[in-house]
Amino acid sequence: MTIDICFSPALLSYYAQPNDVVVVTDIFRATTTMCMAFSNGAKSIIPVASIEEAEEYKQNGYLVGAERNTKRCTFADFGNSPFEYTENRVKNKEIVFTTTNGTLALHAAKESGKVLIGAFSNIEAVVEKSIELGERIVVLCAGWNNKVNMEDLLFAGAFAEKLSAHTSLNLDSDAAKIALDLWNIAKENVADYLKGTDHYHRLVANGLEKDIQFCLQQNTLPLVPFYDKREAKIRVR
Amino acid sequence: MTIDICFSPALLSYYAQPNDVVVVTDIFRATTTMCMAFSNGAKSIIPVASIEEAEEYKQNGYLVGAERNTKRCTFADFGNSPFEYTENRVKNKEIVFTTTNGTLALHAAKESGKVLIGAFSNIEAVVEKSIELGERIVVLCAGWNNKVNMEDLLFAGAFAEKLSAHTSLNLDSDAAKIALDLWNIAKENVADYLKGTDHYHRLVANGLEKDIQFCLQQNTLPLVPFYDKREAKIRVR
Q1: What is the CATH classification number for the domain harbouring A176?
Q2: Domain count within chain B
Q3: In terms of residue numbers, what domain contains A229?
Q4: What is the pLDDT of residues A24-82, one digit of tens each?
Q5: Radius of gyration of chain A (CA)
């Protein structure tokens, strides 16, 4: 079994091989938020790349989650905080979703063999599902506007560590070594390690420490959302 | 003063700002080799992206260095080993040069404010020149076919460390933190740390341990090649 890690959606074409299992991650906060929505009973999520598309869905009566630069778009029902997606608001609902980076990463990945949604919230469940589904796993870090970010790399390192605990793993890729070595520095206190980073600052400046803490907890939402190509939706079953 | 680090030529457009000083690095081996050529008196280097262009120059009587996948192209006078570019072969000569990754990175950078050639061989000289030239420095890692590699990231980390010893530095970028933290793990024994990496294997498999050792030595060739936009050549003066 092989793992590779792609640090930016703009690099995926250089990493992708046919039949890859691609694990899309956007720790702060899109993929964590999707896990929360499904955990609270959402039926499906329709990921859209642009604000314009999301607004069109809204006009047609859909529930819409839309965020840009950490803030909820004014027309939308939800922003990108996991705590907004409560059971009474999302149970059995279909939600249209667009975020600064997460939906961009999904868009880049959608032609891959299988596409799973990964976060610290469901890390162990995604590791197990990946082993079941494929021989080559690529963790795709959403980053920030196609730039590399730390929290997604740390997730990738944690993912590689957990995967290697379950199965014999080819870790030859430099990207995997980079992510693992950073994870080994950070893992004793991830929130503390992230204090010097871009997105941490941005979230704290917007009063979102609670989101940060939640997004870094492991295995709180043990389900595996996947991208259903035929329907162009994310579902859990 | 600000530093950012771009992990792949394919990401430069997301990192670039007007008037950046871009330090292009391809530690194994293109930028090290260019430093050696200039140290041995080469007059200028004409970087070309394709083998076809390099062959055309060769047919027109130019000296040509050309490498793909660590091997010298058969038509060429030199490959990509610094030890081939001896004084008796390069002094006062103009050399056409194409390599797997280094010239790709140069091509990506050529519209930047200033473009310098960086390697461990000239690291301190490039740090000093960068401080003289600009307010915002971007280290552009050549990587391998647009994928991230370890040795270029380590150079970037070492560069950030040295730059911050000279001047007050904005190190807020996640990419800079990643490179610095890796450099801090690796710096006690860089060759040892690199033993698990892709390109190290590739070079050792081709009998090039001597090149590796040389490419990791600091300040052996203290000059600063730069890209002269007007002439589309690399020069030192």
Answers
A1: 3.90.1560.10
A2: 1
A3: 2-235
A4: 999 999 999 999 999 999 999 999 999 999 999 999 999 999 999 999 999 999 999 99
A5: 16
